[in-house]
Amino acid sequence: MTALALPGTARTGGSRQLAGTGALLRLALRRDRVMLPAWVLIVGGVVATGSGALKTLYGTAAERAELARSMTANSSLRSLYGPVFSDSVGGLVAWRYGVFGAALAGVMSMLVVIRHTREEEETGRQELLSSAMVGRRAPLTAALLAALVANVAMALVVTAGLAGEGAAGALAFGLSIGACGMLFATTAAIAAQLTESARLARGLTTAVVGLAFVLHAAGDAATDDGSSVLTWLSPVGWTENVRAFASTGTVVGGSGERWWVLLLFVAATAVQGVAAYTLAGRRDVGMSFLPTRPGPAAGRMGTAGALAVRLQRGTLLGWCLGFLVSGAVFGGMTEGAADLVGDNEQAREIFQRLGGQSGLTQAFLAGMVGVLGMVAALYGVASVLRLNGEESAGRAEPILANAVGRVRWAAGHLVVAYGGAALVVLLGSAGLALGYGHRAPELLGAGLVQLPAVWTLTGVTLLLYAVAPRAATAGWAVAGVCLAIGWIGPALDLPQPVMDLSPFTHLPKLPGPPVQWFPVVLLTVVAAALAAASLAALRRRDLAT
Amino acid sequence: MTTAITASGLHKSFGRTHALDGLDLEVETGEVHGFLGPNGAGKSTAIRVLLGLLRADAGAAQLLGRDPWRDAVELHRRVAYVPGDVTLWRNLSGGEVIDLYGRLRGGLDTARRAALIDRFELDPTKKGRTYSKGNRQKVALVAAFASDVDVLILDEPTSGLDPLMEEAFQICVDEARDRGRTVLLSSHLLSEVETLCDRVSIIRKGRTVETGSLADLRHLTRTSISAELSGEPGALDRLPGVHDLDVQGRRVRLQVDTDKLDAVLRSLTDSGVRTLTSTPPTLEELFLRHYQGDDADAEAAGTRPGGGRAAGAMAR
């Protein structure tokens, strides 16, 4: 019996290795009872309802055929969404949401798997569980099963939502997204064996998902039928190459759905799964293959501000890179995007509402600056919530028991939040200017004008935190609503009072006409007032314990 | 003698929970003061009020003669705090955290820092996430004892330490006392409190029930006596303060309120004493008396000579 308990020698354990899997799976699903349905319904729902939006915008078959033709012809848009394989409604939905849906399913699976494997080990909870009747392979199995449940649910939502556009296509599309999710679930399972920290494991997996996206982007920029080697190296490219709905409408590529591509997912998932189980069998609980490096024996940090920068600098660097690259991609797309939107009257209108002006290139640029600003608000919210994280984890208390006032402590993080948001927006604008190749000063200025709105949303979150720390994460909801208004509002033609709820609505659409300074100044004042009120409130309340 | 910490009538509620219900506390400058109480008695809440992290609903608190809420930052230059549950940043090394805390308090004695790291056998290069509970506590202890401060506030600082490290900790507290520091030590380990503390306060349900030196407190409790007499025992049951009397021929076992000991001994020697064992009350007994059973204890506290209010008065 003792020999069986040794890692690596446990070959004959059989079903015992999986003892307790059912209980662990129930525990995982119970813990994720909010997160998983939210992911499935939001990602699956957006994809599934995509057909309605598409029919509104491109009502006739002729319009859709024209859209399919021009989208496939444009290499920069191809690199984002992949090529169009069919001009049917289903085919266009699969084109528009396929690679993003697949990548998001991958992110969801990663979060689930890491949460129930490495994070459990890192926090020490796994030790307690493993001391019970729990087999050596049960935790990983339960995590992968939880991911399987989520991905099957997402595939079902997508398939059911699009079934009206062709059952075969809907099934192929649903499966291609769910299968990609499962593939990345096993990637995460491997990453969870490699690192001692859940955060690093998530970072590794995200990098793999990002790499898959970049490979597809590079491959699809080069070819217009998804046949590039680079595309075939990417699981996200496989989703696109399933060619869901290619059996409907006017087929661009030739044949119908390519069901056999799904086998690639199965094979790759199996290979990665075996690798993860093998690695898991060769290590002890809590240990990892990539060792944790020791740190310095003495520190140089001497202020709360330095600590805040140290804690947030990695995340900020990631955001900076992301914005620079996204900006450059948007910039590169500008000319082509304006050309092709020009053919569709309704799309042109939407773009003009989004960008607020007549010149389409200008409208596109303004729209992209707006998108960068809105996403930067998410950075601001996340960064400010680090204060809440530090406080609720009990790490703020010993800092504040030193000669550090609350305002000084908070200020360190706020400099990173507000300043970081400015940096991120500026880098995004700089990327936009680089990709577009002209009008750098105007674009940088347009980015700066976004800041009052970014800071206002950041400030709302800060105020929530300062007044009611338990409600602080509601800042995400506020930012989410404003983003939704800014993103979908123009397409849905929402009434103005609703649009006015978002601070971004009030900003002048730049680059373009002369700047309306009043709303910019007013929002700056609002943002400053929110920050001041928050700091005053923070000084008055009890520290959460 | 001046007082480093005073609190009188502190009240603090969280929703419906009354964490502090009129807490009194006095810690004199230069003493090591034990702060005892069961889980949830309000020890940590009281400490957080003293650190200005929480604001009391009512009552007054002073730390080094100043208001801990209003003058928090100034005061914290002179105070080092070790929380009961130390959480560290996952990606910062222990050494970095020690130095950060030191600088944020306004100074760290580097020689003492090195000596303490040695004494606690701490590896300062490890990252926060890889430390065990005991090692996380050592990080906070090294940072606190290496700081040049007047007051050390330690909230169950040894709950994760092994006996060897516990001893190292006791040496540190002794050294701090020798340097004239004031130490408020909240603890569950009675032996630790008995070894280290000059005076103790016992709190229960947010209220101070006993305060005084260990000698004072012992005085208010019962001593166990067992004796073998050469003659028939006298009328011991008529003496005041005698409890649990058990006479078997010439063998006598009894408990007596410590301040009534004299009369009992006189009666015993009248009968002639062959052997005598007298056991002083342990801190455990003191402790248990205040911890056990809610209702029974509340009643008993009122009738006993060593009830809470009397003890508080005597200590002052």
User: How many strands in all of chain B?
Assistant: 13
State the name of the first-level CATH class of the largest domain in chain B. Alpha Beta
Radius of gyration of chain A: 25 Å
CATH superfamily of the largest domain in chain B: P-loop containing nucleotide triphosphate hydrolases
What is the residue-averaged pLDDT of chain B? 85
Strand content of chain B: 25-35%
Cα distance, first to last residue of chain A? 46 Å
Sheet with the most strands, sense and barrel status of chain A: none
User: What structural category do the secondary elements of chain B indicate?
Assistant: alpha/beta
- Give the total of domains of chain A: 2
Return the average pLDDT of chain A rounded to an integer: 86
**Major pleated sheet of chain B:** 6 strands, mixed
Radius of gyration of chain B: 23 Å
- Overall geometry of chain B comes to elongated
Compressed to H and E, one letter per element, the order of chain B equals EEEHEHEHHHEHEHEEHEEEHEHHH
Structural domain count of chain B: 2
Counting helices, strands and paired strands, the structural category of chain A is: mainly alpha
Query: What is the CATH architecture annotation of the largest domain in chain B?
Result: 3-Layer(aba) Sandwich
Give the helix tally of chain B. Answer: 12
Task: Say how many strands of chain A there are.
Answer: 0
* Shape descriptor of chain A: globular
Characterization of the model:
The complex is a heterodimer of chains A (545) and B (316). Helices cover 73% and strands 0% of the residues of chain A. Chain A has 545 residues and is mainly α. Chain A has two domains: 265 residues, no CATH class; 237 residues. Chain A starts with 20 loop residues before the first helix and ends in a 5-residue tail after the last helix. The N terminus of chain A is likely disordered. With 316 residues, chain B is an alpha/beta fold. In chain B, helix 6 links the parallel strand 6 and strand 7. Chain B: It is found in: Cell membrane. Chain B: Belongs to the ABC transporter superfamily.
